[in-house]
Design brief:
The protein is mainly alpha-helical. It is 75% helix and 0% strand.
Length: 422
């Protein structure tokens, strides 16, 4: 019963998160499809201009940047496919070998153009144009049927892409800041909740089964880290080409600083669980005092509780909540408490390596994980260094061109025996 209620709450949260307008993307996509169809029908691009609304449907994405790139990639793929079809149709109609040539050539060109998810649109467009032209009455290579089919497909694609981009520009381009806030907050809750649960278990009847369970639980937290990174990446993408991007550029440094440190906290927490498991399995099964004395287990539990307390300050600082000055004062006191509890644990785990080399090594691994937890939770609340500036849209393409030119230059230097710089 509890699982069903959790599923319902998760679904509700996914649909109605704070800062997200329910149904906005659905309405925008529907509007883009209808407008694209009406415009193509008015221009008589084809008897049934269904390609225009289909393109608009596929072009409208979550962010303005992804909508623009998707639209341009789709236009490039359709135009390429049409040109391939026109070239092949100039020689022959639709046969098994012309179909194979169209598909092969289209895929090679699409990969060279790095069209990604739109790669298959190249051979699809080429095949549809070739097939439509071949079924036209009196088809011959270079016939008007071929030209009208090719022209109509390109025009409908341009209409659909343009309408999709325009609708996403005019109607509230989303920034997705709040989903990133929520994802970071939920990750904080997961990490602190796991730490408190582990602390409670260490104060009870610790055994190998518990050590296995908590190590698996710590590894499972990686899913939450990946989810938060996905949401923050969407926030970064939504700030590109967006006229309302100022809020996202200001929020991103705080969120990225917090998330990077939280990811390191997750790794350190997983290493801590691994160190505890190694020590638990090192001694005889059921020998709790042989693994850790009761006072050492309680001290480790106290450290984990202090870590969870410090974690609770990350969310308000990362999201810049109104009580930020108060939180900043509180966090220093919590960090001091965490350091004191860590020192108390270190004193209890002190052993002579000449007497028990195994315990010395395993306790050292545990304390290293604790130290990393302390350092990273402090890093999570460090002040950000001003607003974020996304790299230009064309930066990746320029970098690719520079890499090609550098490769060619190095090859020329290697082939030139008179070049003294080699």
């Amino acid at each position: 019963m509890g699982s069903a209620s959790d599923t319902v709450r998760a679904a509700w949260s996914a649909c109605f998160r704070r800062g997200r307008t329910p149904g906005l993307r659905t309405a925008k996509t529907t509007l883009a499809a209808v407008v694209a169809f009406s415009l193509a029908d008015m221009l008589h691009t084809s008897p049934q201009p269904i390609l225009a609304p289909l393109t608009a449907l596929l072009v409208v994405q979550l962010t303005l940047y992804s909508t623009l790139t998707s639209g341009l990639d789709r236009i490039a793929s359709v135009v390429t496919g049409v040109l391939v079809a026109v070239g092949v149709a100039g020689l022959t109609g639709l046969t098994w070998w012309s179909l194979g040539a169209v598909v092969g050539i289209s895929l090679v060109i699409g990969r060279l153009m790095r069209l990604g998810s739109n790669l298959l649109e190249v051979p699809i467009s080429a095949m549809l144009v070739l097939a439509a032209a071949s079924t036209s009455e009196g088809f011959t290579p270079g016939s008007p049927g071929l030209q009208s089919t090719a022209f109509g497909r390109v025009v409908e694609t341009l209409i659909g892409a343009a309408v999709g981009i325009l609708v996403n520009v005019v109607i509230a381009p989303p920034l997705y800041i709040q989903p990133a806030h929520d994802a970071v907050g939920e990750l904080v809750d997961k990490l602190s909740g796991f730490s408190r649960e582990l602390a409670t278990a260490l104060r009870g009847d610790w055994n190998r089964a518990e050590a296995d369970r908590f190590l698996q639980g710590a590894r499972g937290l990686g899913i939450e880290v990946a989810r938060a990174d996905l949401h923050l990446g969407r926030t970064e993408e939504s700030a590109r080409l967006n006229p309302r991007a100022k809020a996202a550029r200001e929020a991103r440094p705080r969120l990225r600083t917090a998330l990077t440190a939280l990811e390191h906290c997750y790794v350190s927490l997983r290493n801590l669980c691994r160190a505890v498991l190694d020590r638990t399995y090192f001694v005889e099964e059921g020998d709790l005092d042989g693994a850790y004395r009761p006072e050492a287990r309680r001290a480790l539990a106290d450290v984990l509780d202090a870590f969870a307390d410090a974690m609770e300050t990350v969310d308000p600082i990362a999201t810049n909540e109104p009580d930020l000055p108060t939180t900043r004062k509180l966090v220093e006191a919590q960090f001091e408490e965490l350091r004191e509890r860590r020192d108390r644990l270190a004193a209890l785990l002190l052993v002579d390596p000449a007497v028990d080399a195994g315990a010395w090594e395993q306790h050292g691994a545990l304390l290293a994980a604790v130290d990393r937890l302390r350092v990273e939770v402090e890093a999570a609340v460090r002040p950000a260094e001003g607003p974020w500036r996304p790299e230009p849209v064309h930066a990746r393409h320029l970098a690719a061109v520079r890499r090609v030119l550098d490769t060619l230059a190095r090859r020329d230097r290697l082939e030139d025996p008179t070049d003294e710089t080699v």
